[in-house]
Structures are given as C-alpha cells and as structure tokens.
Amino acid sequence: MEIEQIKVGPMANLCYVLWEEGGGAVVIDPAWQPEAVDGFLSVKGLRPELLLLTHGHPDHANAASYFMKKYGGLALTLHSADAFLLDAGMEPVRFVGDGEELSAGRIRIRTLHTPGHTPGSVSYLAGGAVFTGDTLFVGQCGRADLPGSDPRELRRSLLKLAELPPDTAVYPGHSYNGSRSTIGAQKERNIFMKLAARGEAEFVKAAV
Predict the structure, then answer these.
(1) Terminal Cα distance for the chain, rounded
(2) For position 88, what pLDDT does the model report?
(3) Is 174 a catalytic residue?
C-alpha cells in the first residue's frame, strides 16, 4: 500500500491518499484544496473508491463535496455520531462503526471508534499504519474542550490506540509537531499518552 500525505489549508491539515498499483484509491479527510488532492489522483491515474472522514469538523471535510460531485456514486464515510457536523445536503453518506472493515481493491481498512475530540471520531487502520485525525497528534492529542468533546472518552481512545503494535505508523490530521510517528514513540514521548496511562484525573486536568 502506498501513502501520499498532502498538507492543505491554513491550519496545517493533512489529507491522505492510499492506493495500490492497478487498484482504486482511498481519500481521507478531504479539505481546503481539493485541486491539490485531485491533481495527485490524476497524475497517478487513480479514481477514489472510498472517501473517509476521521471526524466531521469542517477543516477535515470542506472539500468532500468536490469529490462527491466529480466522482458519481462516491459516498462520504464517517461515524454516525458526527453526522450533525456535516453541511446540509451532503449526500450520499455511509456510516461506519467500531471494528467495521472497508476495502478498496486490495486495500483493507479497519475502523476504530476513537471518540473524545468529537463523539464520532474514528481512526483508520490500514497496512501497518493508523490515520488518527484529531485524536492523536505527534506529541499532542486533540482538543477536548469543544462542543461535543469529552476528555474521558479521549483518554479511553488514546489507551485503545496504545494497544496497537508499537511499530504502527501514526499519520495525524494536522502537522503541528510533525507529520508522522509511531505508536511506540508516542507512548514513550507524548505526555498525553503517558497521562492517559496514569489515570483519568491527571489526564482530564491536562486535557481541558
């Protein structure tokens, strides 16, 4: 599986394209600059088969309509708990749940429900990599003080991610302190991952 990380917009967002030669592509968190993402697809001769959101905040979804209009029948995929964050009329939509598996050609993706930043935040596990959206960043975690956020849920989500193999590559939703890490490195160096392991009270105090 190949991974292209594309930095877009004014908030250091990271959009991803996953693909295998001769197969369909997966686009994760299409935002801000659809022409940059679509240009990459064109150069590679790829057509998106899956359009995935890690969560429904506009800075991760505001280019989704472009792809849904251009590639007829392409559904926007996210957890149903974040449907309230989508713009009206954004259709078709497909909802996924914890543990659900998705595929595009030979690419297999497992959905992990990782709420806390939003109630419907998910991470996508594929090919030894996990795409964590705004749940886990390099050296940080997502905000837990926004409407719909829950620091206790966020802690549980970080603990869930910590159970992945240590060499799992972490691809976050923003490049705040870096654009890539591993689960093992984050367990060792990320203060929020450490606080999550210590207990709820310490984590909540630091996260809000």
Answers:
(1) 37
(2) 84
(3) yes
* pTM, to two decimals: 0.97
pLDDT at residue 196 tops 90: yes
Number of separate domains in the chain: 1
Q: Which of 29, 38, 134, 150 is catalytic?
A: 134
Q: Are residues 157 and 81 in contact, defined by beta-carbon separation less than 8 angstroms? A: no
Asked about 150 being catalytic, the answer comes back as no
Span 153-157, average pLDDT: 98
pLDDT per residue as tens digits for the range 40-56: 999 999 999 999 999 99
* Residue 199 region by backbone torsions, left for phi larger than 0, else alpha for psi between -120 and 50, else beta: left
Active-site residue identified among 29, 113, 150, 174? 174
Catalytic residue among 59, 79, 82, 150: 59
For residue 110, the domain's CATH number is 3.60.15.10
Verify whether residue 79 is a known catalytic residue.
Answer: no
Residue 113 among the catalytic residues: no
Q: What percentage of the chain reaches a pLDDT higher than 70? A: 100
- The share of the chain scoring above pLDDT 90, in percent, equals 94
- Burial bucket for residue 167 (CB in 10 Å: 0-12, 13-18, 19+): exposed
In the residue annotation, 38 being an active-site residue is answered as no
* Domain ranges, residue 24: 2-207
Asked about 167 being catalytic, the answer comes back as: no
